[in-house]
Design a protein that fits this description.
heterodimer; A: mainly alpha; 14 helices; 2% strand; B: mainly alpha; MetI-like fold
Chain lengths: 310, 277
Amino acid sequence: MRDLPACRWVRTRLLHQGTGGRTAVIAVPYLWLLLFFIVPFVIVLKIAFSETQIALPPYQPLLYWTRDRVLEIKLNIGNFLFLLEDDLYWKAYLNSIKVAAVSTLLCLLLGYPMAYAIARARATWRIILLMMVVLPFWTSFLLRVYAWIGILKNNGLINNFLMWMGVIDQPIVMLQTDFAIYVGIVYSYLPFMVLPLYAVLEKMDLTLLEAAADLGSRPFRSFLTITLPLSMPGVVAGSMLVFIPAVGEFVIPALLGGPDTLMIGKVLWTEFFSNRDWPVASAVAIALLALLVVPIAFLQRSQRAQEGRF
Amino acid sequence: MSPRLPFFRLSALVFGFAFLYIPILSLIVYSFNKSRLVTVWGGFSTEWYVRLFSNEQILNAVWLSLKIAAVNATGAVILGTLAGLALTRMGGFRGRTLLSGMTTAPLVMPDVITGLSLLLLFVAMEQLLGWPQGRGVTTITIAHMTLTLAYVTVIVQSRLSTLDDSLEEAAMDLGARPATIFFVITLPIIAPALLAGWLLAFTISLDDLVIASFVSGPGSSTLPMVIFSKVRLGVSPDINALATIMVALVTLGVVIAGILMARREARRQRDIQMAAG
């Protein structure tokens, strides 16, 4: 009787009381994320390999039963070949990388001095300045991008000001150019650059700089040989946090870019909403994901390094 | 350290903050502009606020977005707290690395991919299970919860990992059940982190255009979707008024939170000094 499986099961349950709660704590978020984060990617991958058809949903199944009750898989790599053939996709792909890389660099050039100045400010000021960096992040992203339309357009704030000053006679075309997209991305993602940089700069051991000064090193040289190398984890983390979302950005090129601005996020949106081509949109998503694997790996490595250090 | 490059540092701050705040200030100033031409000053007027509050489409969208954001934030805090507990308090378990990856990946995933993949999931689920029927509030909420639970997890996880777990261990030694320990000890300590997570999840949901556009159906246009379609047609001053109201509310919230935090910090410093003296 003691060795009946049912009895054993009850006994282990009783012995491990609390296991039920533990399992639930792990299982609930686990199952949620499996269902709503992992499974969707599998479906995107599946649909990227299926053929377009005019129906709802507008794609053909991959797996289907033939008349002899045989399960057939029909893989269609046509969507990916299409991406390779049509140079629109190539250009969008490369242009997205270019735009994201330039914006990341500009963000770094603007964000590093800010993070540095905040980290070296007096302690009471630091909190206020940090809050001022984060505050715009809490207001609507969409509305902040929209604000730049009024500033950059031909009869906008900058052109009106410059013409009033007499610097220019003709308005400078800034809206609907790559310049406007750079401004938009730098503006929207600046906090993501400043915060990780601040975190490393604030924790830096300042006695190193004092020692260097005692040994006769000039401030600029001390910065290049001590501060900059020590802040590299922050540089990498900040750059990846800007670069990764910037590559797939849709709102900024849609509002500030021109009608012929090619960015991969906008191409995906058009494929899906205007052309209603779900398989090609899925193939674009897979291609975009493949592009992001390397920077995401970089980001995770820098985060692990930081966790290990502090 | 003595200020060695005060001019350089000051100009970095002035330039940086001017860049961050001039666009927001321009929205506020022009929301009170009488002229329809957004950049020509035509005198002070509150006309656009009146227009805004009589625009039924925008008001409905505001209400819908607030509802979705509140439900989403509550759900995300519950799921994110569970995930944070699982990652910090449950030791090693099978698939821990996968869970950790699944809670950080949504943070950097481009919205277009998240939106598209969730839509395809909902379509497939409807075909297989008959649920969710069509797309709308439910699907938007589920999509936002999946995205924002990642943010809550990060906040809760970092709070729990810096938290000294000796109190929890003491309670366990005294025979308290895990659930009791959580509700009596852990929850009150991490409450500020949960509030921060709730607010962040609320804000992100209120702000999301791309994911909501993919997973919404007819008749469920959220506020960002309405703003986007209006803004695409050009600058419209009632959107300036809406932006001003949002900025005012957020600033108020942040200032109140800042004052509360400063008070807490001051009290803590006093306690430390008293303990030392």
